[in-house]
Design goal:
mainly beta, 451 residues, five-stranded mixed β-sheet, 30 strands, five-stranded antiparallel β-sheet, 38% strand
């Protein structure tokens, strides 16, 4: 066949170039006409009436002069890029198209490779995804991680970062889209925004749930926190399950571990419970501190955590064991066994302070019961908030908490709710000399629970 199959160049058969007066040999001329007929048949009709029967081989072209273009716009079309990649150009400008999306399920640790560009990997168990070096993956490499069974940690190569941090944790039930700049990695921040949505512009302060109780198995050393949530201003944290901390150990992340911010458990001590939020994944934890304010909490062990709000309080007895209590709605703590704070203590017209078993460092409303005895038949005793100053007991003055004697040296009983000062004290005074007994049934320590 005269057409070169590699170059497409046609060469007519020998003996078909005549001269004047030459007798024409019909054999080569018949071959010529046959070849021309064949080549016309093998040519692609311009009107598109017939298709190609073999692959069409176009010139490689360039971005400004594509191998396949258009008569009206020769700079728009297809060309061959370096590395054998197909390129598309519009008006001489390269147009990029993503490669096909790749889905795969993973159940363990995995190293993301250059071939995972545009891949979607669903992890069904806890895993660490190690990213290949950013320079190797190259700019525009992108990848999606779905955590569908447990948290997934994404760990860039060496000292490289993702969103400026050493790692990114994708909590169970969330996903993250990553893109490489050629030197670092970035997420689309969607997962972070969803997790922190409650913080964006919220105000107010409350505790919902998170009620405290003595742990059933270790009531003297462990405190349980029910599921719930807490907010203080724009900071919010929640726990979908109960959580446990112990007072006989320094703080360590996780339920069942130590809770003290510093030191060791003390006798007759007060430990304020603060809800924590882990900055990287917004998970819940609790720290116990003798500090009555967030500013006083020792944060040495709490790197990477935000202290959200005080959610309760725990008291120990003289043996450094947690006092047994029952917590009721509206932040009320009732002692399982009432505490006798005073027994036959002298009381007179001189006001005095009495320390009782309530939180130290905070004002609380104590629920107390009283018994009073006096040789005077017209006498009463008054127990009150020290913030009121020095009051005078009696019917014509500030009244009393215990009824007037009807029989000399008899007993009168009474009680009520009395606010303390921050040193755990209440004031007591009588209209005349006598003796007083005080029982402590519990206290109200406001943390913002409305139920």
């Amino acid at each position: 066949m005269p057409r070169n199959p590699s170059t497409g160049v046609y060469s007519k058969p020998a003996g078909t170039t005549p001269s004047v007066g030459q007798v024409i040999d019909p054999v080569p001329w018949n071959a010529l006409t046959t070849d021309l007929g064949n080549e016309i048949t093998n040519s692609l009709p311009r009107d598109g009436s017939a298709p190609m029967v073999a692959p069409l081989k176009a010139a490689s072209g360039t971005v400004s002069a594509p191998g396949v273009g258009f008569a009206s716009n020769p700079q728009t079309g297809m060309y061959l890029k370096g590395g054998g990649l197909l390129g598309f150009t519009q008006n001489g400008v390269d147009v990029s198209f993503d490669q096909a999306m790749i889905y795969a399920a993973k159940s363990g640790d995995y190293t993301a490779l250059a071939s995972d560009n545009n891949a979607v990997h669903r992890f069904t168990a806890a895993a660490i995804v190690t990213l290949t070096a950013a320079a190797t993956l190259g700019a525009n490499w992108h990848y999606t991680v779905i955590a569908d069974g447990a948290d997934v940690t994404i760990d860039p190569n060496g000292a490289e970062t993702i969103d400026g941090a050493a790692t990114l944790i994708v909590p169970n039930g969330y996903s993250a889209f990553l893109i490489c700049s050629g030197s670092a990695f970035f997420s689309n921040k969607l997962m972070t925004k969803i997790l922190s949505k409650a913080d964006s512009s919220a105000v107010g302060s409350f505790v919902d749930g998170l009620t405290l109780s003595n742990n059933t198995g270790s009531p003297n050393t462990h405190i349980d926190f029910a599921a719930g949530s807490a907010r203080s201003g724009s900071s919010f944290v929640s726990s979908a399950a109960s959580f446990t901390k112990r007072v006989n150990g320094t703080w360590a992340v996780g339920t069942g571990n130590g809770g003290l911010d510093a030191g060791s458990v003390g006798a007759n001590a007060t430990y304020f419970a603060y809800a924590l939020r882990k900055d990287s994944d917004l998970s819940f934890d609790v720290v116990l501190s003798t500090a009555a304010t967030i500013g006083g909490v020792t944060t040495t062990l709490l790197t990477g955590y935000t202290i959200v709000k005080c959610i309760g309080v725990v008291l120990t007895d003289g043996s450094s064991l947690i006092r047994q209590f029952v917590m009721y709605p509206h932040d009320f703590y009732q002692w399982v066994t009432p505490i006798r704070e005073a027994t036959n203590v002298a009381i007179s017209t001189t006001s005095a302070l009495l320390a009782i078993s309530v939180p130290n460092g905070a004002k609380v409303e104590a629920k107390i019961r009283l018994m009073f005895s006096s040789s005077a038949t017209t006498n009463s005793a008054l127990v009150h908030d020290p913030a009121k100053g020095v009051l005078i007991a009696g019917g014509n003055d500030s009244g009393g908490s215990v009824g007037t004697m009807q029989v000399a040296s008899g007993f009168a009983v009474g009680g009520g709710d009395v606010w303390t000062n921050t040193s755990r004290q209440v004031r007591y005074v009588a209209g005349a000399g006598g003796s007083i007994w005080v029982w402590n049934d519990g206290f109200y320590f406001p943390c913002g629970r409305i139920a």
